Amino acid sequence: MEWTRSETLALAQQSCTFCFGLGLRPGRAGTSTPCNCVFRAIFRACYEKFRLCVAKEKHVSRVSLEANLGQTRRSVWGLKNEEYTADFCLVSQRALSLREHRIFRFHYLLGADSVICCQKFGMDRGSFFHELYRIEQKLGRKFRELEPHALFPVDEYFNGTGRYEKSAIAVLSPYGVEDQSDEDEDGNVRPRSKKLLKFPIKKVA
Ligand SMILES: [Zn+2]
Prior knowledge:
two-stranded antiparallel ribbon; binds zinc ion; mainly alpha; about 200 residues
């Protein structure tokens, strides 16, 4: 993915001495690279959402019908809160080293404070917070760049339909057949016409 200033500007820390609140800083070969303060902001937003999902009573959990365009089934039922917490944990486990993940688990998942963690891992306070910064930066980048369903922006994860479904349909339709969408160009729902297609194009593809 390509990072743009319009995205990083809102996330950057205004007092950051590396990017001066712009969110981008000069990288190699004249290119711009996102600042670490942006990655930390992304991690904190995702962590906040994770905590909300975990704290929610289980009977409040909501089942939602999600569009699944480009696949055999047009829509699937999902438990978004549970999916988000599972993704948060699994993506972190894959992205971090064994030692980083132990620190992450103790501090962020189990809630151990800095005093307990410093004793547990034999670190001084400064090294511990440096380690946390590195973990947050690593995960912040991962959460944003994850494909096809990034954990950030959070509202896109919960309300979006994914970014690549339209292109998936284009790949699966070699005959230039009309899109099977139930909506017309103005976004109005129209009744499905059975005469439109005689064969399932996905099976043919
Ligand atoms: Zn910065």
